[in-house]
């Protein structure tokens, strides 16, 4: 069984994960079904990104990114 870390990712980790797959904030938000405003707040450190959302992004974002 795959374990998801209970510790929320840092804003730096969130930004790095998004940039690694070459997605805009709007595109990254779409991957995990949130608004761009929510994604921006996660990257700015205004709100914490749920660990499950970060895991979902890491597992699926490669399908959407890297095509630019």
From TrEMBL:
It comes from the Bacteria. It holds the Pfam family HTH_31. Residues 14-45 form the HTH cro/C1-type domain. Gene3D superfamilies: lambda repressor-like DNA-binding domains. One of its GO terms (molecular function) is DNA binding. Signal peptide: none annotated. InterPro entries: Cro/C1-type_HTH, Lambda_DNA-bd_dom_sf. SUPFAM superfamilies: lambda repressor-like DNA-binding domains. This is HTH cro/C1-type domain-containing protein.
């Amino acid at each position: 069984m795959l374990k998801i870390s209970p510790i929320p990712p840092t804003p730096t980790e969130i930004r790095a994960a998004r940039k690694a797959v070459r997605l805009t904030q709007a595109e990254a938000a779409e991957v995990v079904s949130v608004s761009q405003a929510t994604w921006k707040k996660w990257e700015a450190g205004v709100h914490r990104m749920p660990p499950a959302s970060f895991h979902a992004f890491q597992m699926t974002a490669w399908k959407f990114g890297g095509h630019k």
